[in-house]
Amino acid sequence: MSTIIYPSPIFGPIHSRRLGVSLGINLMPPDGKVCTFDCIYCECGFNSDHRAKSRRPHREEVRVALEAKLIQMSRDGLLPDVLTFAGNGEPTAHPQFAEIIEDTICLRDKYCASAKVSVLSNATFADRPSVHEALLRVDNNILKLDTVDLNYINKVDRPVSGVYDVKKIIEALAAFNGHVIVQTMFLCGTFEGECVDNTGDEFVAPWLGAISVIRPQMVMIYTIDRETPCATLRKASPTRLDEIKSKVMALGIPCTASY
User: Fold this and answer.
1) pTM (predicted TM-score)
2) Alpha helices (runs of H) in the chain, residue ranges in sequence order
3) DSSP characters over 207-246
4) Average pLDDT in the 200-209 region?
5) Of 172, 190, 192, nearest to 182 (Cα)?
6) DSSP summary character for residue 55
């Protein structure tokens, strides 16, 4: 098993399947994982495997490091397509998230005006006013919704808080009034002897119902690409992903599928 812990606060650029040349912004410590989920498919491993000993980077550390990297990339003639908040955990959990978004937009406008600002989030804090307002300002507000089945969420996404409310999350996503991209992981296989296949109609149909309520600008469905901390997980088939994609598009919502 090989998992990834990203440098902090800046990493890459890397090539993203969905976003192009992506310069990563990691608001978590460089030596561990801090997340409000403990997903069994996370490329960064389980939370318990990577307990951070150092602190999160401060707002000013992020700003200085990002500006230095953008200056370097400009000199090299390789500017990013996107500035992506991702890394070793949930970016919106950073106490200065809104202020860091403000700094990032200013630096983007100064050095690479055509680049998009993207946030990859599990949506656990999407209903917080400061987070909501900050996410309204980014180009790609990409929020996770793997299913609406709470038992599945507790088994696969594994929220660290005992008060996770999927109905509240759906309401928070709908409150963006279309300025949101829903990202969903479909997978097969088992975890601790239990089936974790969410590609069947019993999962897909209620999820489509939530998508029709949220009315996002786009849906991104994908499956496992990198190694996971659980060796018994399996990719969803391209055929099934294409079927699900077609169902989303039948709702009048654009959808991409990454295999």
Assistant:
1) 0.95
2) 59-76, 97-111, 129-137, 150-152, 166-174, 201-214, 238-249
3) HHHHHHHH--SEEEEE---S--S-TTEEEPPHHHHHHHHH
4) 98
5) 172
6) P
